[in-house]
Amino acid sequence: MAKAKGPTYVVPFRRRKEKSTNYEKRLGLVKSGKPRMVVRRSNRHVLVQLVEFNPSGDKVLISVNSKKLKKFKWASRRNLPTAYLAGFYAGVLGKKAGIKEFVLDIGLVPPVVGGLPFAAQKGAVDAGLKSPHGENIVDDGRVKGAHIEALANSLSEAEYKKRFASYLKEGFDPKKFTSLFESAKEAISKE
C-alpha cells in the first residue's frame, strides 16, 4: 500500500473564496512592472489610487477620494464626471510624484464601455500619464455631465428641486453642470 505524499485537497486563499480577488488577473497586472491605477466605488464616492507592488504588501503612492474634490468646488457623487475628475486629480498628483505610466486595475467590476473606471482612466491620461486604452471607451459628453445638465433643464421646477435636492443643498447648480465641470478641471490642473 502506497503512503500519502501530501494533502489531496488544497485550501484556496481566503480572498479567492470570498470572490474579492482574481489572482490570475492581479498577477498579470503586477507582472507589467508599472504602477496600477486602482479604481473603486462606494455607495457615494469614487476612490482612485496609484499603487505599486511590494512583496511585503502593496504601497499606495497616490490616493484621491472624490471627497477631496470639494476644495475645487465640485459636488462629489458617484458618477462619470466625478470619476473623471478624481482620475484627473490623481494623474496631476502622480505626474508631480514622477509617475509616467500605469495600468488600470478595475478589480472584479465587469469592463463595461463607458463605465466609471474608464472615466477615471481617461482623466489620468488627460492629465499627462500614459496607459494602454481604447480611444472611444468613454463618451466626452457624458464625462462632462452634458446628460445631467440636459436632464436638469428638461424637468419642471418641482421635479428639478426634488431630483437634485442634494446638489442644491450644497449650492451646486446642475443646470450649469458642464461649466462647473470645466472650472473644477481647470482648478485641478493649477494644483
- How many E strands? 4
And the CATH topology? Nucleotidyltransferase, domain 5
Count the domains.
1
If helices are DSSP runs of H or I spanning 4 or more residues, what is the number of helices? 9
Give structural notes.
- It is a single chain.
- This protein has 191 residues and is α+β, with helices and mostly antiparallel strands.
- The protein has a single domain, classed as Nucleotidyltransferase, domain 5 (2-Layer Sandwich), CATH 3.30.420.
- It is built from 9 helices and 4 strands, in the order ααβββαβαααααα.
- The protein has helices spanning 14-17, 23-31, 80-96, 116-126, 140-143, 146-154, 157-163, 165-169, 177-189; strands at residues 36-41, 46-52, 59-65, 103-105.
- Strand 2 (46-52) and strand 3 form a beta hairpin.
- Helix 3 packs parallel to helix 4 (116-126).
Short description:
The protein is built from 9 helices and 4 strands; from the N terminus they run ααβββαβαααααα.
Topology of helices and strands:
Blueprint: H1 14-17, H2 23-31, E1 36-41, E2 46-52, E3 59-65, H3 80-96, E4 103-105, H4 116-126, H5 140-143, H6 146-154, H7 157-163, H8 165-169, H9 177-189
Helix pairs in contact: 3-4, 3-9
